[in-house]
Amino acid sequence: MKKIQWSMQLKKQFILLLHIVFLGLLLTGFSFIYLNSNYGRGLSWIHEESYADTFAFKELLEDDIEKIFQYVNYKDVFETDGEVDYSKEMVSVTFNSGKTVVYTLDALMRYAKGMGYYLDDSYEVAGGPKSPSMDEVAYPQINWKAYNPDEQYNEPGDAYASLEELSVEVLTLLGEYYRIQFNYVAKPSNLYFQVFYMDDSLQDNLYTNAAGRSPDELKQLGRYLYISGETILMDTNMKYIPDNITSLLEKYNLYSNNNYYIVIALDTTYPYEDDYSKANHEYLSIRIDYITGLVLLGIGLVGCLITLACLLPISGYETRKRDAVRLHGFDKLPLELNAVLFLLALYLASLLSEKVGYRFLHLVVDNHYWNFAERLLLDTLIYLCCLTEAFSLVRCYKAKVLWTNSLLHSLYQWIIRYLTGVSYPFRLTLTFLGYLLVNGVLIAAFSYLFTKQDLLSFSLFYLIPAVAIICFNIWVFLELLKNAVESEKISKALYNISSGDTGYTVDVDVFTGRERQLAEAINNIGSGLDAALQEQVKSERLKADLITNVSHDIKTPLTSIINYIDLIKREKVQDEKIQRYLEVLDQKSQRLKTLTEDLVEASKASSGNLKLEISDIDIVELVWQTNGEFEEKFEIRHLEMICHFPDEAIIIEADGRRLWRVLENLYNNAFKYAMMNSRVYIDIFKEDNMVYFTIKNVSENPLNIRADELTERFVRGDVARTTEGSGLGLSIAKNLTELQGGTFTLYIDGDLFKAQVGFPIKVKA
């Protein structure tokens, strides 16, 4: 077992070490890219341009063009017939005594040497006066300068200078002349130029370091720029045009014509070592560094992601079976305390970086890169802190204690236990106030840190409350959405149960809190109703079966009794007393026979176990026939039938025998229970696509019963049961009517009884 545990631990340590290595590669690659002069230019420049197409080349070329035109100017100032002429007049001054002196180049050079000045190997002015002289305090007025004839003196003091200042100024210009001549004329250069002017006497003045080459030959070297005074168009293949070339070309044109041109050409094979070859080599090195940085960045990023993907599944496990999660001491802390310690670690990382890390970096890093190195160090420490915190949260999540081990969860559970016993409005009010309080605190923290971000050691601290606000409100929304979904499920369950689906249940596992209690109560209600309905259905079925069985059992002996009574009556008994007994027996046996037949028919009608023979029936004619059948019977109780029938025939689709039984039961009901010497109203009328038959009478006894109870079996309107009847007539009539697709409705208003039977009218084809 120890071997397996050590293997898992070693595996995690090895992957973590790889992650750190890849992180180092990522940071190294990012440093290569960020510190590169081409940072921010994207990737296209790597394979689409050369050094001669860069903006840096343009800047260097502009500087060299400036020097070339300075050389043109210095050549006219210092040379005669291509050689430096020390006898050339340089400056004219007037002393305070009124004496005007013109100083030649030789005089100024000798004066500068006498003062201790000279040109070093770089043609820079060096040395200086070793002892003060009277000339140093003499400031003659400048009349003109040969090297700057157009100089303007805006202030009175600008027109005065000492001989030392003038000699140093001329010596500086001479050194510049020597330096330009050496770098661009005497020494081989990759940059070639030709500046051509034609004076007013049509004499050519050519300044070049490419003697013997024509402009067309120079254009073949690589990059070139050709400008002629005869046109405003430029002939060039350079990506960036120097901004100063046209103005300088016009500035140094001392003649009143446009007979001039300039050719600038760069040999892009760089055969000579000069500033351009060095810049090109540096550019190539920069590009290689950039590509190297991209490769390292890609390898480091992919490696970091892969190692993280490998660490996440095994984090927290000690064995390969991954059957238990091992939590460190830091992981066992409540989530909120864990977060506070994480923020404290970020603060300490920032503080240590500033107090210790930055000072160490300043010892080993060039000051040009201090800001980048400081930020890189801080971001690395922050990343390591975040990585530690992230894996702590992962372990807690795997152990399923991330939420349950938090103070908020404990507070939430306490609040739930407290609020369970209070009313819903009070719970809702407290919840809303808590929501406002949390949002208010987070918004206040964000506002405060946002205004103080410049004073924070880590400028992104103000984003933490902002992220907390977003996460909190998303959590609230998800909770509200979950409650809405749970309420919708509860509403659906109530609707289904109220619609008769008493077997409908909800999955209580998806509910929480009060909604879970409601879901459990709904399931209990549904199961209780379903059990009650099942019991009722069972009771009704047993009752119907009992009635049917008893009826069948009674029918056989009853038939025998009726037959024997009939046989006795055939014996012509003379005794009147016995004849009365036989008459009573005959009546009671016939009533019992009718009762058993009604019981069987009622059972079949209620269960729908009847075979119907549907045909076209004229209901008006059928009712007239029924009136004829019961006319004599109604006269026994002095009942008068009042009929209102339409003259036309009304055809319906029904079973004639069953429909006759419905009418017979209704007429018998009126005969039995209508008040003697009263009227019975019988009507037939059409309404929409229906035809309705109604029979109304005034009851002889008070109707202390609901109308719907009269259609139940064994129920009669007179509770005392003083009349004959089985109590099944109306129940049979209703069931038979509904089996044929009709409607059967009873109405009771005081002693008024009304029965209404409706059928759809058959549409004529």
From TrEMBL:
Residues 549-763 form the Histidine kinase domain. Pfam families: HATPase_c (PF02518), HisKA (PF00512). It is found in: Cell membrane. Its main location: membrane. Keywords: ATP-binding, Cell membrane, Coiled coil, Kinase, Membrane, Nucleotide-binding, Phosphoprotein, Transferase, Transmembrane, Transmembrane helix, Two-component regulatory system. One of its GO terms (cellular component) is plasma membrane. The keyword Ligase does not apply. CDD domains: HisKA. Signal peptide: none annotated. Its EC number is 2.7.13.3. It is an enzyme of class 2 (transferase). It catalyses: ATP + protein L-histidine = ADP + protein N-phospho-L-histidine. Residues 578-605 form a coiled coil. GO terms for molecular function: ATP binding; phosphorelay sensor kinase activity. The chain crosses the membrane at residues 290-314, 335-352, 372-394, 401-420, 432-451, 458-478. PANTHER family: SENSOR HISTIDINE KINASE CPXA. This is histidine kinase. It comes from Hungatella hathewayi WAL-18680.
